[in-house]
Amino acid sequence: MFSAVLDATADAVMVTDKTGMIRRVNPAFEKLTGFSLGSLVGTDARELFKDINDPEFCDTLWEDSLPQRHYPQVRSKHADGRAQIHALSVTPISDNGGKPSQFVAVILSDSFQSDAASGESRRVGHDALTGLPDRSILADRVDQSILNAKRVNKSIALLVMGLDRFTLINDALGYAAGDQMLREVAERLSKVIRTSDTAARLDGDKFAVMTPISAIDDSVIVAEKVLNAIKKPFHLKGEEVFVTFSIGISIYPTDGQDFDDLLKDSLSAMQYAKQDGGSQYRFFASEMNAKAKNRLELEKRMRAALVNEEFVLFYQPKVEPKTNRVKGAEALIRWRDPKHGMINPGEFIPVAEETGLIVDIGTWVMRKACFQTKAWQDAGYEPIKMSVNVSSMQFKAKDLLDKVKAALADSGLEAKWLELEITESMLMNDVEGAIARMQAVRDLGCGLSIDDFGTGYSSLSYLGRFPITTLKIDRAFVRDVQENPNTAEIARAIIGLSRGLNLEVVAEGAELKEHIDFLKDNGCDSIQGFFYSKPLEASEFASKLKRLVSV
Ligand code: C2E
Ligand code: MG
Ligand code: MG
Fold first, then answer.
1. Element (H or E) spanning 5, and its range?
2. Model pLDDT, residue 62
3. For residue 194, which of 175, 174, 178, 214 has the smallest C-alpha distance?
4. Are 86 and 143 within one domain?
5. Is residue 250 in some structural domain?
6. Per-residue confidence (pLDDT) for residue 109, from 0 to 100
7. pLDDT for position 546
8. Residue 447 CB less than 6 A away from ligand 1
9. Which of 84, 99, 119 is the last residue of a domain?
10. Which of 163, 285, 503, 540 could be a cystine partner for 205, CB 3.0 to 4.6 Å?
11. Measured in angstroms, how far is the CA atom of residue 108 from the centroid of ligand 1?
12. For residue 533, is it within any domain?
C-alpha cells in the first residue's frame, strides 16, 4: 500500500539508509531531478545537494542525532545541470533500538520558488502566494493552445479578472487578510475551471483563465461560473467579506493572434467592466456583448418559464404501417412564451444544455410524459409507448435513474411504456460508462432508443454491445428515398441491421406517401412523420389516437 501511495503522490520522495545512500525514490522524484531510479539507487544522496548549498548544511543533512527537520529553501541539482530551489524535509526512521536506520526526504511539490536574484535557472514559475501558474506559464500555455487551435480551427478565450475594490479590503483588514483572500480566490478559481483550462495569477488582485472554446457562449459560461464562485462570502478575521470580479474577455483568433495581444485586449475589456460598476464581464469586441446579453436574457426567461409553467409537451404519433395503428409517441417540448408565442426546441434546448438548465427541463418533460401516458391508459385508450428525448448532461447525471424511477412511481406508469431517446454522440467519449448507464436504464424495464441514427459517429462495432431496444433512422435517410438510390440503400441497410441485432426500427421524418410505401415494404416497424401527423397537443393527440385505431 505504501508503495502505491509513494507512486501516486506529487511530492518527490527519497528513502536512504542511515549513511545517506539512496535506496528508493518515487516517480515524482525522478521527474523532479531528471535522474532515473536506476541511476540514483546506491549513490550518495549528498551528491544532489553538494557544492550548491552551504557545505555545513550538506554535512548535517544525514546527521542521525537530529530529529525531523524542515528546510524552506534548498538547492538541488537537476540531471541537465540546473539548480532548483525548493523546500525539503528530512525525517529519520528509527529501528527497534531507537537508532535511525533510514531517512525519508520529501520535496514538496508546490514549493518551487523563483530565484531571480541569483540568476539560476529555475523550474516552472508558480505564484508563491497562491500556488497558481504565473504569467509566464500562462503565456506559454496560451501560445501553445493557439498552435493547437490553429490546427483544428478552434477558438480560445482569455478571461482576465480583477477584484473590485480590493484595496479597500487590504486597508480595512490588513495585508495578511488580503493575502488570505487572494489564496482563497485562487482556490475557488481552480475549482470552477475544467481540466482543459488554465487559471493563473497575473499580479496583485488580477487573475486569468484561458479556456479552449467552440462557441462564444462557452466563454460566457466560464465567466458566469467565476462570477458566481467569487460572490459567496469570504471569512476573514471573523468577518464575512463580499467581493466581486470584473472580467474582460478576448478571443483568439478574432481579437488577437498571440498571448500579448489577447492580454492587452482582455485588460482593456476588464477596465470597461469596472467602469460600468464591476461584478460583470465584458468582451473586447463590442458586438459580442450584445450576443452575450441576448443569451443571458434567454436563460433568465427560461428559468422563469419553468416556474411559470410555460413549457408544453406535444406528442407525435409513431404508427405501425402494416396496421395504421398508433403504437407510440414522441414527446416534444414547446415553449409557449407569453411575449414571443410558441418557440421550438431548436431555439432554446441548446442554450438550456449549455447552462445546465436542461436537467430541470428534462426532469419536467419526463414526469409530464409519464403522467400523460398513464392518463390516456386510465381513460381507456390502448396503451402506447412514450419516448422522451434525453440530453447528454441528463444522461450522465448521477441521479438519472432516481429521476426515472420517481417519474414512473409517481405517475403509476409501468416502465415498459417509457422509452428514452439518446443520441450516438452521447455514448462515444466514455463507451464503458455509457454502457453501464444504459444497462441500468434497461434494468428498470424502460426502452432505450438511439435517435437520429446514422448521423453520429458511433462505430458499428459498438452497436452490438449497446443494450438498446430501438434504432431510430434519421430523417436524412428518409427524405429522398424515393429519388436517391444511395439513400434508399442506406435506409434499407439500417433496417436490415436492426433486424439482425433484434432491435425495433423506427423511421422519422416521413412526409410523403412514397416514404411510407418504401419503409413499409422494407420492414420498418414504426414510422413517425408529417405524413401521419405533426406533433400535437395532448387533447388533439388523444382524438387522433382514437381515429387511427378505428381506421
Ligand atoms: P428529434 O428528437 O429528432 O425530434 C424529431 C423532430 O423532427 C421534431 O422536431 C419533429 O417535429 C420533427 N419532425 C417530425 N416529423 C417530421 C417530418 O415529417 N418532417 C420534418 N421535416 N420534421 C419532422 P422538434 O419538435 O422541433 O424537435 C427538434 C429536436 O429538439 C428534437 O429532435 C430533439 O432533439 C429536441 N427536443 C425536442 N423535445 C425535447 C425534449 O423534451 N428534451 C430534449 N433534450 N430535447 C428535445
Ligand atoms: Mg427524438
Ligand atoms: Mg430524431
1. helix 2-8
2. 81
3. 214
4. no
5. yes
6. 65
7. 62
8. no
9. 119
10. 163
11. 55
12. yes
C-alpha 526 – ligand 2 centre gap (Å): 14
pLDDT value at position 296? 77
As averages over each run of 10 residues, the pLDDT of the chain (551 residues) reads 84 91 92 90 90 75 76 79 79 81 82 44 66 89 89 91 89 88 94 86 94 88 93 90 94 94 94 90 86 81 94 97 94 95 91 86 98 95 96 92 98 98 86 94 98 80 90 94 93 94 96 97 97 95 66 39
A 10 A CB-CB count for 457 gives 8
Which atom number of ligand 1 is nearest to the Cα of residue 344?
26
In this structure, which amino acid lies at residue 535? P
CA distance 399 to 326: 32
Q: Is the distance from the beta carbon of residue 391 to the nearest atom of ligand 1 less than 6 Å?
A: yes
Residue 550 in any domain: the answer is no
pLDDT given for residue 215 in this prediction? 84
Q: Which atom of ligand 1 is found nearest the CA of 345?
A: 30
Distance separating the N- and C-terminal Cα atoms of the chain: 71
Residues contacting residue 53 through CB under 8 Å, at least 6 positions apart: 74, 75
Specify the CATH number for the domain of residue 427: 3.20.20.450
Residue 536 carries which DSSP code? B
Neighbours of 447 (CB within 10 A): 21
DSSP 464-491: TTS--SEEEE-GGGTTTTTT-HHHHHHH
Confidence at residue 115, expressed as pLDDT on a 0 to 100 scale:
41
The C-alpha cell of 265 is what? Answer: 485586449
Residue with cell 462570502: 233
342 class by beta-carbon count within 10 Å (0-12 exposed, 13-18 middle, 19+ buried): exposed
Which protein residue has the closest C-alpha to ligand 1 atom 10? 535
Contacts of residue 54, Cβ cutoff 8 Å, sequence gap at least 6: none
Distance between CA atoms of residues 40 and 30, nearest Å:
9
Measure the CA–CA gap between 93 and 290, rounded to whole angstroms. 65
**C-alpha–C-alpha distance, residues 163 and 247, integer Å:** 9
Residue 502 DSSP label: T
Give me the domain span that covers residue 44: 1-119
Q: Evaluate whether residue 291 is within a structural domain.
A: no
